[in-house]
Amino acid sequence: MKKALITGITGQDGSYLAEFLLSMGYETHGLIRRSSTFNTGRIDHLYRDPHDPDARLFLHYGDLSDSGQITNLIYNIQPDEVYHLAAQSHVRVSFDMPESTGDISGLGTTRLLEAVRRSGIKTKVYQASSSEMFGDALPPQNEETHFRPRSPYAAAKVYAYWMTVNYREGYNMFACNGILFNHESPRRGETFVTRKITRAVANIVAGKQKKLYLGNLAARRDWGFAPEYVVCQWLILQQERPDDYAIGTGESHSVREFVEIAFKLVGVDLEWKGKGAEEKGVVRSLTSALSSTSALKTGDVLVEIDPRYFRPTEVDFLCADITKAQKKLNWAPRVTFHELVQIMVDSDMELAGLKSSGDGVRILRQKGIGWIGEIP
Ligand code: NDP
Ligand code: GDR
């Protein structure tokens, strides 16, 4: 039985990856941080009492700032594969916490690579690199595009990227970078823009929230569906040679488009009024079903700009060129942008206590995305 260690197992990607690796028969270990309240909500459904002879998921306390414990875990577990996903992953927050972001998202990778090197164990390492590293490099971006990081987070990830390449070349380690473009899901953290939008849409329809406050509506991102991307993380480590891959959809959309589609899916047609920080999303019309079941009415202002969400330096336009991944990993995304929004809106409608369209689940069934039956 192969053994894997996932750092960041309690996060969006870590939880889907754990599900995937367990379904592939792996003994799966995860690094978790001690916190004063439970932080394992995304993986609780996978957990079994470790005394259970069939248990294959094991959690270990640790922190990326603690190299002793990381070294310890590598020695004790002797994993075949390490998926290094843990990071301070919020770009806006990295401007408030540049030093600790560098420590965790940058140096954390060095601590892990060094632990693997010193252990002498032939462990393959996946580094969660990011399209944010491209910064203001023109789209489409691929493995050859120069990095021009525009945030403390991106700068830390560029450092981690090069350390991964360095350990591969210097010590002959099987160490790879997946340069993943934005990927989302019902399990996405609530402060990332997609989830913030779908959650707000559902709460506004449910009468639990009045408005959605956002920052830069013009930013364009290449948004894909997270469960499909964790398969790539695994595929990257199954290749004959270690290498780096850009993973995305090859399509880019603005935050504004995401907002419009999400509202449209629940029956709200929005129009935009004003410019810049004064721009507002106003109800142009509602479906008759929605006008009879909610307190919403034409002319309501549902979206406003709050400059607090602007970043000192923004990444304007990301769009992936995935030629290499298509060719070498034989991978292509199946869930489209519109379907992604549908899946997330449906899930948040249900969380808000409302009936969803059911189309999100239908899409997943249709596409045969089976192993993530419990997607939300
Ligand atoms: P999340 O923010 O959902 O998860 C981050 C994980 O890192 C959590 O498990 C968190 O633990 C853990 N973590 C944070 N700080 C530490 C620390 N000091 N020690 C140990 N663990 C820590 O991120 P995603 O799942 O979305 O992303 C996974 C990785 O991929 C990240 O490195 C991210 O930067 C990168 N990435 C993500 C993309 C995306 O679009 N999602 C795109 C490209 C790269 P806790 O639950 O306790 O907070
Ligand atoms: P990003 O994701 O910074 O691309 O990093 P995020 O969803 O935070 O922002 C995407 C774009 O939306 C704009 N935006 C807002 N963002 C947030 N969070 N909140 C708002 O209210 C808001 N309004 C507009 C942002 O300015 C930005 O342009 C994510 C993370 O998962 C990283 O860890 C990962 O590396 C990259 O994706 C690829």
Automatic annotation (TrEMBL):
Keyword list, A-Z: Lyase, NADP
Gene: gmd
GO molecular function list: GDP-mannose 4,6-dehydratase activity; NADP+ binding
Family: Belongs to the NAD(P)-dependent epimerase/dehydratase family. GDP-mannose 4,6-dehydratase subfamily.
EC number: 4.2.1.47
Domain NAD(P)-binding residues, every copy: 5-344
Cofactor: NADP(+)
Role played: Catalyzes the conversion of GDP-D-mannose to GDP-4-dehydro-6-deoxy-D-mannose.
Protein name listed in UniProt: GDP-mannose 4,6-dehydratase
Coiled coil: none
Enzyme class: lyase
Superkingdom in the source lineage: Bacteria
HAMAP family from the UniProt entry: GDP_Man_dehydratase (MF_00955)
Reaction(s) the record says it catalyses: GDP-alpha-D-mannose = GDP-4-dehydro-alpha-D-rhamnose + H2O
Gene3D superfamilies xrefs: NAD(P)-binding Rossmann-like Domain, UDP-galactose 4-epimerase, domain 1
One GO term (biological process): 'de novo' GDP-L-fucose biosynthetic process
